[in-house]
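Incident log, support desk, overnight shift.

02:14 A customer reports that sequence design results differ from what the structure should imply. Their input is reproduced verbatim below. On-call engineer (initials T.W.) acknowledged and began investigating.
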């Protein structure tokens, strides 16, 4: 399996347009090349890492993102996670797809209700679980995580507004906890809220070569003003899936 570099702003020592990057295991330094291609340019960084069908859908035929993904996408996902201090997901994604704790970074779950049923978190890894929720949801968090996970996990309480968590407040709370480089994997609603509020530095979007009418748009159904993007990198795998890095032109990085 390999990726062909169609466009990149990375140093030429890493890869140039037309190069092939092997992604099967660690052979030929492929993983290290991917790390270089996806390295965040700053210590404090928020990227979205999402997958969508060509039709813009965030779910495949099974109702989850799994059937949009493939082995190459999962290799890219592993590298992006490994480069982050924390992997941020919404509780709806936990309930729909389950979630395991990443191998090296922390799993950050954002929830208003505290309902984290469906998770697949190993109590042995629970020290790397962070839950962000309002004060009124802490009991529900403990109940749905179960005693073993809840005892070891970190719960960060933030104020809610009419039952909703403010994305900027969530982000500040995480940064205060020294989680600086973050990757949000959705779901669509949470990703859209971060983008809507101008908090995203970069969008990493995998495009699966299928069109489907799942009814689940990749950024959710809430309308928001356009976020202008500039293409930083574009890769293509052997099955015609695309992997793009888009810099948010008016994102936080441009305002620092």
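02:41 Re-run completed on a clean worker. Output:
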């Amino acid at each position: 399996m390999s990726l062909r570099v169609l466009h990149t702003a990375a140093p030429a020592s890493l890869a140039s347009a037309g190069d092939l990057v092997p992604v099967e295991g660690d052979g030929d330094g492929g993983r290290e090349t991917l790390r270089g291609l996806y390295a965040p340019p700053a210590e404090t960084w928020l990227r979205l890492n999402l997958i969508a069908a060509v039709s813009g859908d965030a779910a495949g035929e099974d109702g989850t993102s799994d059937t949009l993904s493939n082995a190459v996408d999962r290799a890219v996902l592993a590298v992006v996670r490994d480069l982050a201090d924390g992997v941020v997901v919404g509780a709806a994604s936990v309930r729909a797809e389950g979630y395991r704790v990443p191998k090296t970074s922390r799993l950050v779950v954002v929830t208003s209700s505290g309902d984290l049923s469906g998770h697949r978190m190993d109590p042995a890894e629970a020290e790397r679980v962070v839950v962000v929720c309002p004060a009124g949801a802490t009991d529900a968090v403990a109940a749905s995580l179960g005693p073993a996970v809840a005892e070891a996990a970190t719960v960060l309480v933030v104020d809610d507004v009419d039952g909703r968590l403010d994305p900027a407040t969530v982000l500040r709370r995480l940064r205060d906890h020294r989680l600086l480089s973050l990757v949000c994997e959705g779901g669509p609603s949470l990703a859209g809220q971060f983008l809507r509020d101008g908090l995203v530095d970069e969008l990493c979007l995998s495009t699966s070569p299928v069109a489907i009418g799942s009814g689940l748009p990749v950024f959710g159904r809430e309308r928001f003003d356009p976020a202008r993007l500039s293409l930083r990198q574009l890769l293509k795998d052997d099955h015609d899936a695309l992997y793009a890095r888009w810099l948010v032109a008016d994102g936080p990085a441009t305002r620092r």
